Amino acid sequence: MDSLLLYGEAEGYIQSLEKMSLRDIGSPRWFRQHEFIEKLNMQAILNASANQEEFIKDLFVSLGKIPTLIHAMILTEVWKHKVFPIMCKLQDFNPKSTFLLYMVIHHEATTINLLETIMYHKESSEAADDSVLDLVDYCHRKLTLLAGRSVSGEIPTEDRITHTQLLDTGSVQDLQRQSDMLEFEISIKALSVLCYITDHIESLSLSVLSRMLCTHNMPCVLVQLVENCPWNRGTLEKYTEGRWRPVLPEDQLKLNKHDGQVWMALLNLILKPDCQRKYHFNSFNKAQLLKLCGFLTEVVIDQLPNLLDLKQFLGQLAVTDPVAPKNDLILEQVPEIWNNIVMENGNKWKAIAKFQVTHVFNPSESELREQASRLSQTYNLDVMENLIPDKPKCGACGRMGAKRCSRCQGEWYCNRECQVKHWPKHKPACKLMTEAVQKLQEELNISS
Which biological process terms from the Gene Ontology are attached to this UniProt entry (predicted)? Predict the structure, then answer.
């Protein structure tokens, strides 16, 4: 499998990561850091998917940079919710500035994706130090939003488009729609991160446990996700591996990855001894948890046998009242990242938006050329193919593809014979894609 980064390169990228201010977002210095995180994310996924040594995770742990990564993600989250809406009212953006704005919005998705990969390991949760509290708060915000949108029927029905496809649009409305789709994808990743944190709860501080169980009542949030299942669209489609996919009749009762993560997080938060001693099984919490009984069918337990323990516990909970936890006076840590960013910028949202509209997202022609060139190097197509869970299929016969169409790079074929045979059908799409790339080059003033 191709490698994107050498060990020394990755070490240099991670060592250079720094905490930035809200005003820095979109600046050349910020974009350089974004490119580093993009490459680190791709390499981390390549290593994990190939069961290779995960040196990206090891470097983040040894260099103590996981808190910096969490800060970068939350900083983008604050910007997206506080500054971006003001910017949209100040100016109608052209395709150039729209693309740069999308890259900023996409940064949060890239960062949570990288965190999902490295937080699988216990040592990563420990290395996050106090910032794991901010990460728990972040996951809570995303999952409550996900549950709320599922109840109100606001889950996106389309897949997120690619960077290249977005370049063919220039409207703020398209950008906002893509932001909503990204928010759904980010929330799904936050579920994974929360699941991994609960796996390692014994090695984390009491403050983290209290934050999940007492402050945010995460078990009840997870019950809402079991009830509404936002990654299932009836029995027809499921959101799997980053896109909506049709469900075959024989797979309709099969749990997907996200179902499993919700159940595993519930198992950890309800059955682990430390959690049982801390969680208050009052009448409300008890009523919410007992809703799970209706979902613990034989089919579900056959797929996740550990859920039998949960079913037995819920059976006992239905007829007993567990002892309430002791209200001991303890000193608890509190999350700082979100609060510090908001306190520092609380009366400056409009000023930051005006500054960024004028100076950051209105780049010169030379700055655009340089940025476009760097991005084209970041998103290496040959390496990114290894990140796609489904192997490309021949556009003519459906067998595994071996080579791409050299003109549009969008269609795959197993051999030259299939490519020639399929050309009459592929020609119109090939022409459209080629023209779109030419338009992109003209917009960004890149020479072919």
Answer: inner dynein arm assembly; motile cilium assembly; outer dynein arm assembly
